[in-house]
């Protein structure tokens, strides 16, 4: 059965971190949240009638820092989704991203009462020097207080590594503290910045980064967190349902500034997205522009080679891998070519398979960029 999630982009942050490439702004430098939330609600009212799914696998408030805006705004967005006929049930995962030091006991109660049942904490590190170097305003004490607040709830911890001047010992200290708090889920992000960026200097070499990744994987096993995707670890049963939609060719509707959407209909599916600039976004919402009326620069119907590439890349990111029968059913004419390439990668120990799925090996996970490049399909080769 088709699964469906809604992503809501809240573009406010305490600071603009110098490594971040999301569409976010410092809190006081853009329109006030109450005004932005009205646009989100109008977007729901105008466009929801044409969304072909109603039953929700997940809702995800991301950004930005959604916990920075008044919790009542978050509640009112959930209410609007409900008014528009979107249905949640006891299995619907409802996540909000929070920054340490932006959540109080009162906020937490408001979130819980509104049905939010998962929190994603942008902690990054317990090392105050490294946090400062990233331009983060929170410190390790703020993170500890937030984790104490969340200890009885389902939450995810964001860990950033391979930072300038970061040693293996510093990462080990972060992981010792992670293992003390035992989050049910952790996302480990290797810092990625372009050459010449202020944070691109004095970073651990590639070999050291690989060592760091092995350390993370091994240390997290001590808390029962197992890798289920290239950068994500969870206790069994705590994998992110929302992110799994992205990795299994399922449907999501993105609301708000710059948000991306994908519906796997018609044919191989449609991607569409909102503008990154406030004025463009608000103009489109003010003029009641429907999804079907978005300009061609904001939508694309997937061609076979694009859908095939997406299907392979997203599924191979997960440790569960890519189902062979599903691949054959969706792309019967391309099956031989795909299997041929996968067999070549299998010979190089980058891919393995059982009777149902093709998966990356440990070596394949480390060299995933190479695998994805090799498993990219172009119009002229199909
Ligand atoms: S807090 Fe997160 S979303 Fe905001 S600027 Fe920093 S990294 Fe980006």
Summarize the structure.
The chain is α/β, with parallel strands linked by helices and 382 residues long.
Descriptive notes:
- With 382 residues, this protein is of the alpha/beta class.
- It folds into 2 domains: 4-244, Aldolase class I (TIM Barrel, Alpha-Beta Barrel); 304-381, Arc Repressor Mutant, subunit A, CATH 1.10.10.920.
- It has 14 helices and 17 strands.
- The strands form 4 sheets. The chain has a 9-stranded mixed β-sheet with strand order 9-10-8-7-6-5-4-1-11, with helices on both faces. It has a 3-stranded antiparallel β-sheet with strand order 12-13-14, with no helix packed on it. Strands 15-17-16 form a 3-stranded antiparallel β-sheet.
- The longest helix has 16 residues, at 206-221.
- The mean pLDDT is 95.
- The structure holds iron/sulfur cluster.
- Iron/sulfur cluster (SF4) binds at residues 13, 16-17, 20, 22, 24, 63-65, 99, 122.
Give keywords.
17 strands; 2 domains; alpha/beta; Arc Repressor Mutant, subunit A; binds iron/sulfur cluster; 20% strand; 14 helices; TIM Barrel; 382 residues; three-stranded antiparallel β-sheet; single chain
How far the N terminus sits from the C terminus, by CA atoms, comes to: 28 Å
Shape: globular
Could you tell me the strand content as a percent range?
A: 15-25%
Q: What is the radius of gyration computed over CA atoms, rounded to a whole number of angstroms?
A: 21 Å
Q: How many domains make up the coordinates?
A: 2
Strand order of the largest sheet: 9-10-8-7-6-5-4-1-11
Helix content: 25-40%
Note the quaternary state here: single chain
